[in-house]
DNA sequence: CTCTAAACGAGACGGTACGTCCAGTCTTCGG
DNA sequence: CCGAAGACTGGACGTACCGTCTCGTTTAGAG
């Protein structure tokens, strides 16, 4: 960090938020979720601990906000003209996200986010719901194009690709080989949906 | 102090191991993996902390051993005569295991076990490999019976059921509804393998 | 929010001063000097902290002002016609003051007021000088009446009664038994001054 | 306690105690009682905070023990052959003690030690009782020598010298001029006791 | 009576210290 | 003489205050 905040006017509101988010992501990258402490985040952001706790009662909230602040939900659904390439693009984007701070955060949050239902819901909404709605849109288009039959689309089948991708990431860590993604698409996702 | 009024004789070796394992599982159930500390496990087992560290350098090892001690790998592969019921039985057994201490442990270990590769490998072997080899045996028999074609069997397809089951457990927690398992089998696993 | 629903009008100047003094004395009574904080005084007085600091740079000043605002120096010197009863009245009044907020304040200020000489002087002037000048007036009258000899009056002797009273209060706390005051007067103060 | 460096195991506790006491006295000298913190004492002694709190629940206890550890009650009562010189010696010794860490500690403890009666009693025993018993021994000898009359000795008169000395120290701080001590002895203590 | 500058309440800010809990190491002593 | 018990250093926890500051709002007093 370059600037010395003692000389500068005190940061408030969004400016302070941004500094804390950056410090959180830096710590996440250096120490991992398990090694991330409020103390060090505060020190790194040159902020008081109270300023952190005033905004986020636990590191769970802090990390979730920090990750999704710099990595907002990518709203653009790939539209390449065929089911296979759409799914391939979607899973590659998911793999890219997992390889960054969002992945490290997700892994750590799994063991803490389920403590109360409100947190768990927020966690699922951000990490999980994304993939589902993406696949819904992709398959909707494929049905429209006549590529697949609507009856082949079920919730479990929409989740299968994400589940395989995440299982690999969670148990083997990054990076995720592209060959794996291709296999998931060609051996699992496409066959499941194109079955007559 | 002159006399030691402790009722129990000092435990050593396996007797102490067993007490520590039990304390570990109790703490896992009460506080979860994130809330489990060596300190409390030692206190609960009426043991010194050094006795824990001498045996297990980290809580990762301790928890893995404790879980594996009471929940040894079920070596019996279901053999019901049909692919569908075999897979159903296997996933139901996996779901049962996840709903107990092994599930809580797995969730927590995800964020710590990847730190060094030796640990990660041991972790994968116990938690992950299990499902894979089970499915290999089940599909081998189905091929023998002529129920499915050998060419339909690929690593990704063998993993798909486990991945969907675990994704649900990790993000939603226990209990795992049996309806979900049936859907996974009938909409994903069986179609993938019986496709001609 | 658009409207301000506070019932009370904003206080300024003396009205605010008075409210702060009252809050200070209340906190002094509840938490003692050691437990008194600017934060709580401000909250209790429904004032901003800056309003306190604008007037009193430290809690030392605040407490001294608050105490002597409600307990102004009693200017009336007892005049009962005899040395013994004059001194008795003076010490009883001193004991009464010590048993209230002034006593609690004095006890706490001892450990902080000496930091810089200006504060120390102000502190001595208000807490200490009082007794001395009272005794000077009392003995002056006794000399005039021919009750005692002027040569018997020395600074140490004038202080002896106050010193014994305060030593008891500081080390034993309130209340101060009246019997003690009588003993101080009859066994120490009067004998010292009436010695021929 | 006399330690034997050859065989007796120098308990980790006692060596640590000594280091903590020294750090406490250093902090007392540098920052004063009001500026003394458990945090800094621990850091200075290279000890963990828990090691401090395990022994002394509050800084009151810590400071009292530390001061008492290096400044044990001087058991030798001055015996110079005359009341005046005995008292002079006793008050000079008291003044010497007050000018060191014991004085700084006493000043600070006044505002906190009275919180509960057990602490207050311990505080009085150590700081206050000392002077009283010394004076009792001195006057007992003077009575034996026929220098003074036993009927002249009362608790208040025994306390008068200490009270004047302490009042000066508490309100004016160190150093205590020797001239003051001489005045206290010649104008107050001796006249009070030698009165016929 | 209006306008403006000061005073005000509220509370966020960067910090320090609190007293507690736990990690991982090291010492003591009992079996 | 090994190993159980637990004291040790160190560090993070989440909270309370410190003294400073910014933000709007009120209010007194000058024009």
From TrEMBL, chains A, B, C, D:
It comes from the Bacteria. This is TetR family transcriptional regulator. Keywords: DNA-binding, Transcription, Transcription regulation. Gene3D superfamilies: Homeodomain-like, Tetracycline Repressor, domain 2. Pfam families: TetR_C_11, TetR_N. The keyword Transcription regulation applies. Residues 37-56 bind DNA. The keyword Transcription regulation applies. The lineage of its organism: Bacteria, Bacillati, Actinomycetota, Actinomycetes, Streptosporangiales.
């Amino acid at each position: 960090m370059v600037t010395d905040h003692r000389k500068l006017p005190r940061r408030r509101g969004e400016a302070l938020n941004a500094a804390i988010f950056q410090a959180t992501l830096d710590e996440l990258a250096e120490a991992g979720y398990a090694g991330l402490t409020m103390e060090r985040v505060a020190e790194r952001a040159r902020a008081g601990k109270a300023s952190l706790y005033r905004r986020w009662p636990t590191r769970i909230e802090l990390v979730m906000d920090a990750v999704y602040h710099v990595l907002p939900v990518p709203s653009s659904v790939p539209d390449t003209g065929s089911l296979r390439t759409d799914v391939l693009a979607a899973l590659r984007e998911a793999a890219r996200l997992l390889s960054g701070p969002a992945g490290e955060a997700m892994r750590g949050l799994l063991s803490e986010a389920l403590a109360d239902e409100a947190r768990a819901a927020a966690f699922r909404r951000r990490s999980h719901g994304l993939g589902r709605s993406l696949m819904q849109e992709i398959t909707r288009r494929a049905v429209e194009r006549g590529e697949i039959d609507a009856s082949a689309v079920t919730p479990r089948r929409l989740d299968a690709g994400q589940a395989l991708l995440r299982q690999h990431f969670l148990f083997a860590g990054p990076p995720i080989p592209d060959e794996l993604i291709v296999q998931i698409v060609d051996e699992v996702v496409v066959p499941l949906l194109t079955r007559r």
